[in-house]
Protein 1
Amino acid sequence: LAGRSERIKIVVVSRLVYRKGVDLLAGIVPRICKQFPNVDFIIGGDGQKKLMMEEMVERERLQERVEFLGSVPHAKVRDVLVRGHIFLNCSLTESFCIAILEAASCGVFVVSTRVGGVPEVLPEDLILMGKPCALDLTRVLAMAIRDRMKDADDERKGTGTNRKFDPLESHQRISRMYSWDRVATKTVHVYEKVLKQKRLSLLQRLARYKSIGPFAGYVACIIAISVHFFVAFVEWCQPRHLIDVVQDLRPFKIADVPCY
């Protein structure tokens, strides 16, 4: 992107279904295309809402502004993401949303709905979020587009040292944040924290189960009591001290492995 005369690409890679906010997307695309003549959309994915999107493009005469890729194999997602400058996620519900993580790792700025666990996935300077509403997402997406335009103008003028978003830096930060070593370390930390906590007695656990509701609480208590006595019976049949304990594996070198 080298200035306002260049095209800005908005990338969407998602299943085209209601839960992924395709109805919101259908309201955002014509508004953004009308507001920014140099913005195009690349939409990857398939689903029952694809026909609705194609009808919207036909109705608004945006055939030259919106490209449909159809179903995208996972191995090709990276190739699609790097074509864009902004990744748009319109999901109505999300637990983690791996899609925005992949986009940021590819050096693409993210605009998303503020739902579920989305606010916890990326640093604030790599994402802009809005309400799951076409008008609010259009507003937020317009802000991101103007920021990308300003970065492009600054880069073209040679004053891009203070650019708001650096694709390479985004990739490097995500690589550090979500490395498998870091995930393993955090997982071990959670288990160690749980092991250090004092184990609750049966009565304490029943009190907690009872607090979930007048009916569900009693059902949970009955299940907990049943499980408790079943475990006690199994332990009576097979005492814990008679069970062999697997020893911890010690680190070894390849040279220590015998060859036959």
Protein 2
Amino acid sequence: LRAHIPTLRKLERTFGDRSGKSLTIQVVAVCSRSAAGVDKAVRLLGHDVNRYRELNEVLADPQVQVVDLVLPIPVMAEAIENCLAAGKHVISEKPAAPNPVAAAKLWSAYARRALEGLADKLHLPVWCVAENWARKPGVLRVAELLSQGTIGIPRTYSARLLETIPACMPEKLCWRFQAAVKYCGGWALDVGVHIIRALRRLFGEIVGVEHCCKNTTDGSVDLNDEWRLSHESAGSCVRMP
């Protein structure tokens, strides 16, 4: 609520699209398992909305065109798939799935639906993970320098994310590293989505994944934290400790 509601309030305005038509964005519904959560969201929005306790109620609301999902990791992938199947556009918090296998399955279903939609000329819902690094001032500045040719033409690059974990943090982050809970996606599904989005902004869309390496913390958990990607304009080695 602290991050999403203020941003959604800023988006509640009218825009002009490419055809010159006006487009109004408005929050029309809030869904939470607790009545207190719904009440808090409505207070932060500053106006009343349709109130729901279950996602299927939201999906049945014809006023809702886009669903912003902020859910616990175990149920996120299923919720995304249900929203897309209902024809709703989706913005989902990270991680989109508890592990790389579940993420790959979700992406395959989304790609398959896209191909079927293209064949039938259907309107396709859009799904994106809530990534904001593509709009960071530093990323935009580097993109500007690249487009101007100021720092040359990139052929390859290496991007590395290093994070210091204080001694008090392992207990709070135990869900990331315990094989029993099956959240072994490493940083690729979590903070990594921001890094990859920034790289896409700088070097173009990813056209291939050449290999993925798995490292381990204590020998029991696989962390998918090293990838070799091919972009439209460059090859890369991206490491996410």
Protein 3
Amino acid sequence: AAADPAAAAKEAAAGAVSAGAELAVGSEVDAYDPEADAAADALGADLNEGGCAGEMNLVVAPVASVRRRLSTLLDEWPDHPLLAQLAEICDRVMALPLLGPLKSALTGLELLLARAQTWEEGAAAHVSLSAELTACAKLALRWRQRELRTWPRLLARAAERHVARAHRTWFALHRLLRPPVSSSYYSTAATEKREAAAAAAAAGDDSALANANGAITDAAGLTEEEHEGLRQVTMALEEYIMGATIGEFRARLDLLWQFHADLSVEARSAAAAAAAA
């Protein structure tokens, strides 16, 4: 069913103007809009994350409307290849999983709009799909705008992911730097021995450099075994820092500084308590 060429051209020009105006209005997004940013981030930077059931559900109504219109047209022209192809595209979009990535639905919508344009170029007004396709175009525009809104923050989002991965190493650091109290090095008896040995060494009593078990200690009250433990801890910390990615490096340093501050406060408290006693 072909329309008058002049009328078809006029209708196409009007549609282009309308779409351009809609795009211009839709592109006027505030530079700072937390709600819009959050909505855009929820879809993911490339719409491939999935899990947006509410957004995916928006595709049902417009595509179902196009499918019903196509069914009516196919009743009149059952062997029309373009109409059959458009109907197949609609069926594929409707068959997408609800929790699937929006990118699949968006690709289906844009393919539907592109193929339907061929039909619209030669269709008369009474067989046009423009009314049904408008809703599909608005939804595709909505998702593209949200995708574009995430682009200025792509680096920030990537940095946040790296920092989150670095923060997950907190537990490993805690096991390394703050072992259980039952550990022989951190036990009360071992601490008292180190303190007594350090005090004796400070007083010049070399005979106190052997602990109760006969193990030789240095001026700090550390045995050879404890020195080896400290060496292994130092090597582990060096590997921890050297193995960091660029995005995790600063966050890992911050974690180490936090443990250092915590241990320093604890050491000062213990020293103050010992002095008071």
